[in-house]
Design brief:
single chain, 126 residues, mainly beta, Immunoglobulin-like, 5-stranded antiparallel β-sheet, 4-stranded antiparallel β-sheet, 1 helix, 53% strand, globular
Length: 126
């Protein structure tokens, strides 16, 4: 079953649609999707965060906060303002200020605990 999801993600990326990254924690799974692919500095990126429990049930997060920074740089993290679009799904538009490796840290609370997820995305490139 795992190979099916990997193939699906690779197919989406190859088609130029959404790219994604997944992080799993204690009782939750979070997926971050982004367009366009590749991301470009100083151009709007659409980010979609999907969060569910291990059984696939969407999780509603309270106190959702997200920040984007570059591990190799010393500037302050940029806030990423996700808004809930449906149960377990949150969307944001964000402009990355420069090319390079970015880290997006997401925190929130749900009835079963806390979510702390870190995603890595590359901005720029061919």
């Amino acid at each position: 079953m795992r190979w099916f999801w990997l193939a699906a993600v690779l197919l989406l990326a190859a088609c130029g649609q959404r790219a994604s990254a997944k992080v799993e924690g204690d009782g939750w799974v979070a997926t971050l999707e982004w367009t366009p692919q590749p991301l470009k500095a100083l151009r709007p990126a659409q980010l979609v965060l999907r969060v569910h429990d291990r059984s696939g049930r969407p999780l509603i997060l309270g106190g959702l906060e997200a920040r984007a920074d570059m591990p190799e740089m010393s500037h302050e993290p940029d806030p990423v303002r996700f808004r809930r679009s449906s149960e377990g799904t949150y969307e944001a538009s964000h402009n990355f200020s420069m090319d390079g490796l970015w880290r997006i840290r997401v925190t929130g609370r749900w009835d079963g605990g806390t979510l702390e997820a870190t995603f890595h995305v590359t901005v720029g490139g061919p």
